[in-house]
Amino acid sequence: MDYLIRVIRADEWEKAREIRLVALQDPVAHLAFLDTYEAAVERPDSFWRERAEASSDSGDGKVRQFVAEGPDGSWAGTITVLVERPSDEVRFGGAAKVDQTHVVGVYVRPGARGAGVVDALFRAGVEWSWSLAEPVVERVRLYVHEENARAAAFYRRFGFTATGERVAVPGSEVAEEVEYGLGRPVSPGAR
Fold first, then answer.
1. How far is CA 34 from each of CA 45, 81, 180, rounded to the nearest angstrom?
2. For 61-109, what is each residue's pLDDT tens digit?
3. Which of 87, 84, 97 is nearest to 132 (CA)?
4. How far apart are CA 4 and CA 69, in angstroms?
5. Alpha-carbon span 188 to 178, nearest angstrom
């Protein structure tokens, strides 16, 4: 794999918009994202600027967007990690019971799939989660559509386990998202 994994910069809002729009056109986007291409393409530049600023190192520290950047500067994939605290307003799923992070917006371009890009992105997002001093994150969570077997298989391979929590997919009367979690590793010598 010849990609640099890094946090986006605030001025990269156009690239962040482009990869998001591509992701929302993927054949499994209806299973992977709660957003639609039609809604996203209509958002003004100010939305994308604010989103990139918040997700960058210069943001408030509550969210980070990681990308896999190729030698030519193109982005092969992305994930976003949100900090969630029990006192926060619930964005999606159940309320946080502990300080945690929530992985969203996972996407790897078809030409980079199978090359370790998603593994590297997840390592970066999870390592960032564990590195936070405030709050000290107890677990990383994500949700996967019950029919998205490919994504669920990757999450299990990475070490996530189904928690038993399920939430209805917004706009559907029958479909559900399954919560997966990854607990903070226990330090050697800890009791």
1. 20, 16, 17
2. 899 999 999 999 999 999 999 999 998 888 778 788 999 999 999 999 9
3. 84
4. 5
5. 31
Element holding 176 (H helix, E strand): strand 176-183
What is the Cα–Cα distance from 26 to 32, expressed in whole angstroms? 9
Side chain identity at 56, as an amino acid letter? S
Residue 176 is predicted with a pLDDT of: 94
75: left (phi over 0), alpha (psi -120 to 50) or beta: beta
Locate 33 and state its tokens. Answer: 């994202």
Chain position carrying tokens 């056109």: 25
CA nearest neighbour of 154 among 123, 132, 129, 185: 123
Q: What angle do CA 111, 117, 122 make, to 5 degrees?
A: 145
**Residue 136 and residue 176: Cα distance in Å, rounded?**
30
Q: Kind and range of the H or E element at 19?
A: helix 13-23
Does this model's pTM top 0.90?
Answer: yes
**Calpha distance 94→84 (Å, rounded):** 11
Q: Residue 44 has which token pair? A: 């003004």
Q: What DSSP state is assigned to residue 90?
A: P
pLDDT in tens, 111-155: 999 999 999 999 999 999 999 999 999 999 999 999 999 999 999
**165 backbone dihedrals φ, ψ, rounded to 5°:** -80, 140
